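In response to reviewer comment 3 from the previous cycle, which asked for concrete evidence that the modeling workflow produces usable outputs, we include below a single protein chain processed end to end. The sequence was submitted unchanged, and the resulting structure tokens are shown without manual editing.
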Amino acid sequence: MSAPRAAAPQASPSRVDAPAAAARPRLAPAVIIVVGVIALQVLTDLVAGRDSARVLARVGFMACELPLLMVALTAAFRRSLHGRLTAGQGLALGAAIATAFGCVFGLAYGAIALRVPALRLHLPNGVSFVRTMLFGVLNAQMYFGLWSLAVVYPVAVESARVRALEAAQRRSDVELARLRAHLEPHFLLNTLNAIAGLVTEEPREARRLIVCLGDLLRDAVQETSDVQPLERQVAWLQRYGQILEARHRGALRFEWDVAPDCEQALLPRFLLQPLVENAVKHGALRRGDRDGRVAVRAHRGSGAALVCVVEDNGPGMPDEDVRAGAFGLHAVRRRLALEAPQASLRHESSGAGTRWILEMVPPGPRG
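The workflow returned the following structure tokens.
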């Protein structure tokens, strides 16, 4: 039960090519930090009853220091991402930048405080350049911590999320490729066995079916997309059905009923083939009166949903919905889980036959 070719998995358009694509630090959070810190500091000084000279001086220094510090830290972070620095190296670089800014602005504050007595209120023992430099470094490190929280943390979280999504996508691609690789030999062996039964009995018919098989394989090789229109998938199944009808002449016949508005709907390639083969082998050919029938129908359901039905008139299925070792049905379900998680596959079975019902919203064209 199979599809004839294990096509190489292709990434969907929404897939992220690299986690670094999500790690794009933005300057907007840094601007918010600047405004927020300045506002909080001013409010703190006003509530504490500080004089207006000191409040204005603090605002002036922060208005000069914070924007430059935020821009420098963000630029360094971007460079560290492109330069592939480790987390420790990036942290050390940011701390070094904050220290340098703190030293420069601490010294500048001390130099201005020598000339503006109102700025010495927090320096009761007189101006000391070591103390003002230390004061500047401590404040700069605090600002560095706030910047890291507002800029680096969101980028790290988003990068981790993208990495997890990419890892899940890669696992899905690997599993899907494995499923397709398993389906290929099953299809070839089953089809060749069908033709082999005619080689000695009806060599002319066998030759015709070999040509038909060649057409099937050519279509499979030429097709490169992960999805194909339902019209092409049904056309392929009709040629496949001709091989089976010839092999089981008089015991098997196919019926096809595809609504015109469904023909261009996109489906994962060869999704219906395992359902058809299962209906043939474990349904129609198990009738005792050699009047097996398999019907393939498609119509539109509610909304944009596409409903595909594969029905046989066999003896029905036992209590379990998938017989042991039925790899084809398992593959269909896994492909739906990987390629169309919102789709549903269910079955109805009785003594009059079995019906598999696939309902899904067809995917859009892939680039």
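Residues 1-22 have pLDDT under 50 and may be disordered. We consider this sufficient to address the reviewer's concern, and the full set will be provided in the supplementary archive.
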